[in-house]
Input
Amino acid sequence: MAERTFTLDEAQALLPVLESLLKAAMEGKGAAERIEQEFKAVSSRVFLNGGTLLDVAKLAARKREKERLVRKIKDALAEIEASGAQVKDLEMGLLDFPCEVGGRTILLCWKLGEKSIAHWHGTDEGYRYRKPIDEKIAKAAKRRGSRE
Output
């Protein structure tokens, strides 16, 4: 199946929904990591003390909470991917949108906190090679580019 491509307007129109999903995944990741740190601290305390009494019910509840968060993260990421957008960096909140320009595929690049999609890079490049969307890219990216 061919990869979906976006026009600039199509990608821009998806941003509010994708931004919400991305934020949910990022917040879930942070919460899951905090729970994991709790587990590591408990494990370290048990090791250093040569054993200790644990509140097993509380630990089991925290484990279930972490599992719930991981499901939430996976679901949010799956929804983003299903749209055709690509999650490139969950830490930064970075999304790419394949776009066809002049017979080649480029990636429209958006980072959480940016008001709109204003950058692009080649498919073999990454975030640090972002370039501003110029008139040529903007014009080509406005023409219908989806192959669904």
The mean pLDDT is 89. Residues 100 and 136 are 12 Å apart (CA to CA).
